[in-house]
Amino acid sequence: MKPDPYGMPAILAESCATFQRQYLPTFFISFRRSADIPTAFSALDQIFVTFGLFPVDAALLLQARSLPGNDFEDNAQIACAANAGLDVIISRNQSDFRHSPLLVIEPPQIAEYIARRG
Length: 118
Known about the structure:
Layout: H1 10-34, H2 37-51, H3 58-66, H4 72-83, E1 88-90, E2 103-105, H5 110-117
Parallel strand pairs: 1-2
Helix pairs in contact: 1-2, 3-4
């Protein structure tokens, strides 16, 4: 496998780029199906302002690869959350994150979690 200019194998460099560009375009497509383009872009803007975005690079993906568990996507989410300094992961399937060092809650528990944090 031919390395890229940064010394990463090409497949890893492409994985980083794919990971970063995969989710927001999917959100946009979903928004666009239910509204016009300006409304879809407005929804993306709200995501940027409300949630913030964190960089995903080769080091973070390698960290995810080293975590226990067999689901790389779940491990990448754990690594991203931990590197961003987050203290909770929200998931409909807590069992996917049983090896996470972070607290994992389900969506119905969000309000209770926020109230406890005060």
